[in-house]
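ok so i was messing around last nite and threw this chain in just to see what happens. nothing serious, just curious
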Amino acid sequence: MTLPEDRFELDGASLEAWCDRQGYTYQAADGQLIVEYAVLGLPAPLVVLPQLDRGMVMLLMRQPYAVPAARFVAVTQAATTLNARSFMGAWVLNDEKAELYFRVTLVALDTRYSDDSLLHAARVVVGTSELAAPALRAIALDGAEPGPTLAAFQPGR
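result:
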């Protein structure tokens, strides 16, 4: 059981300390933490992005490829479908950077976390990203249609 004194507020120092306690290999850059990870055998780091002026911290993971402009509509449809089936978080296509990523936003204002609660949020991001990666890659890069490709996708099953 986690005791109240084992809990911490989310800020740059506590997030780095959490990464250290988890044994993660990471870099601190521009106020964010970039935790080494791979999806589909390619680098896809978990990014911990404090937005402390807004009282939030985002955890996100980009898919390890650029989405071709010709596939933006199909990938947006896929993201909408996945968002409707997800319990937590959101799929986002940044069309300016051609990046597809999954993110979870945590409240940082007046909220304290334990190692386990923050790890749970990180696992949601990583697990959801990994689970959907093969289907999303097929839609983005191989021309697969979102409907049939995602028909069996049910997170948590």
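not much to say yet. The radius of gyration is 16 Å.
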